Amino acid sequence: MLNSSALRLSIIVGTVLQLVMVVAGHFIPIVAQGFAIGGMSISAIAGLLYARHHSGAWKWQILGAAVAGGVCALIGIVVSFWLGDVPAVILIIGATSSAVTGAMGGVFGQVTAHRR
Q1: How far apart are CA 71 and CA 76, in angstroms?
Q2: Which are the contacts of 57, defined by CB distance < 8 A and separation ≥ 6?
Q3: Where are the alpha helices (DSSP H) in the chain?
Q4: Is 106:44 a contact under the CB 8 Å cutoff?
Q5: Whole-angstrom distance, CA of residue 31 vs CA of residue 12
Q6: What's the rounded Cα separation, in Å, for the pair 23 and 44?
């Protein structure tokens, strides 16, 4: 089962980071050039954060991490789209790829949590 408090925390942290990147990229072109890598990295961090705060089964950790990564990215991409910085197709491509990297962050968070 998904952990709502861990999901909320990871989405909030991921969204804040995504929005900082998007707003900075709107005004600083070199930041905008890194939207794809930066956005997916932030989603991986959100996924890792979810996995570290969820103690349930692997499948729920990875699912929650994917949701956290995808949701925070989608919010950032919507703002970037409204600012005119990315085309609409990035809403689908970016959110999907960020959900995958969120899941990857969740796997990394799960694997490293057992090494403590």
Answers
A1: 9
A2: none
A3: 4-27, 29-32, 35-52, 58-82, 89-113
A4: no
A5: 21
A6: 20
Spatial neighbors of 74 by CB under 8 A, at least 6 apart, are: 91, 94, 95, 98
Q: How far apart are CA 33 and CA 17, in angstroms?
A: 16
| Angstrom distance (rounded) from CA 53 to CA 105 | 13
- The C-alpha atoms of residue 113 and residue 46 are separated, in whole angstroms, by 15
pLDDT tens for each residue of 17-40:
999 999 999 999 999 999 999 999
Amino acid at 39: G
Phi/psi-derived region of residue 54, left when phi > 0, alpha when psi is between -120 and 50, beta in every other case: beta
Q: Which residue has the tokens 């689908």?
A: 92
What DSSP assignment string belongs to 54-79? --S-HHHHHHHHHHHHHHHHHHHHHH
Ramachandran angles phi, psi of 64, nearest 5°: -60, -40
Split at pLDDT 50, 70, 90, the class of 114 is: low
What are the domain boundaries of the chain? 4-113
